[in-house]
Write a structure and sequence with these properties.
Elements: H1 5-15, H2 19-29, E1 36-37, H3 38-41, H4 49-61, E2 65-70, E3 73-78, H5 80-90
Helix pairs in contact: 2-4
Length: about 100
């Protein structure tokens, strides 16, 4: 593991430590077509639009998602390399004596 990798991973895991952000990332990453408009995510939560935007900002700062403004709306997509890095860190090789 490189010198900076633990810092990057910690930032990502910290961002995912909030249930709202975890749900937002799940909604974005699982979306067919790869991107979702903020206008489609906001109704799924009992939170104000500024609060949702704040959570999305933290996910962007953690390097998990990116976005683009198109007219009035902002569209978000997951960054596959970041998600793969998290998955690789969480995946451990099975040893001969290990049980599931």
């Amino acid at each position: 593991m490189s010198k900076h990798e633990p810092e990057e991973l910690a930032k990502a895991f910290k961002a995912l430590g909030d249930p709202v952000r975890l749900r937002l990332l799940s909604m974005i990453a699982s979306r067919e077509g790869g991107e979702v408009c903020v206008c489609e995510m906001t109704p799924a939560f009992d939170l104000s639009q500024p609060t949702i935007s704040h959570h999305l900002k933290l996910l962007r700062q953690a390097g998990l998602i990116d976005c683009e403004r198109r007219g009035t709306w902002v569209y978000y997509w997951a960054l596959p390399d970041a998600l793969e890095q998290l998955a690789a860190f969480l995946t451990t090789p099975r040893t001969a004596g290990a049980t599931a």
